[in-house]
Hints:
- Helices cover 70% and strands 8% of the residues.
- It has 247 residues and is of the alpha/beta class.
- Strand 4, helix 9 and strand 5 form a beta-alpha-beta unit.
Amino acid sequence: MLKQRFVLDTTALTDLQTREVMGYTSLCEGMKAILDLIADARLQFGISCYVPYPSVYKEMYEFASRNGCDREVVAKIDTWLVKKSPDRYRVDVTSQIFHEYVSYMRERINRGMGVAEDAIWEAATECLFMENPQTNKKEYREEVEREVIGGIIGKFRNKYRAALRYGILDSAPDIDVLILAKELDAAVVASDYGIEKWAEQLGVRFVPANTFPMMIKEYLRHSPEGIKELESEDKKRKDHSENVDFI
Length: 247
């Protein structure tokens, strides 16, 4: 059997929907349960689950600490997740993928700037109109936009671009997850549409966080211990059925 490899994003352990599917309300208990499944899969099938180091590992550690998880959770992360730094200099990414990524980020940044500009126009006009309620609102707004807010918006655009466009590559941990998965020919496990979208672009297999535990459980069901357990359950159901027929 070909050994499976997975690269985990932080959301692979922290996704709310995954916890609900597994029947846990506590974040820490949900993380423990997923890590226990990973441990069983590692011991029985040699399935390896990697975490980019230090970026995503640090996120997981801080997430567990902030939410009051005990040291056992961190110990399980250290024990059962393989920490590895992605080889950013040797993994090839085509120029077309990089071009699409930059275009996508630019579009999102411009969209965010548009939303912020609308809020500035609205807030400023409403505040000024409150001081002169007798003025025709439409005419007053046009005058304010022309004389006052236009210059402010211009300064805002320059500062916004300087703050967000210079050197941006969005989330470094997300990129590390994709690069490491590409390097190892592994599947990415996450609950993040951005990671899913770019995994597809890079030709990397993507596993949604909420289906990952079920996948591991399916592997474990077909281990020698799992098969014995299934046979035992089948025998119990058969015995129960025969008793019902007899009655």
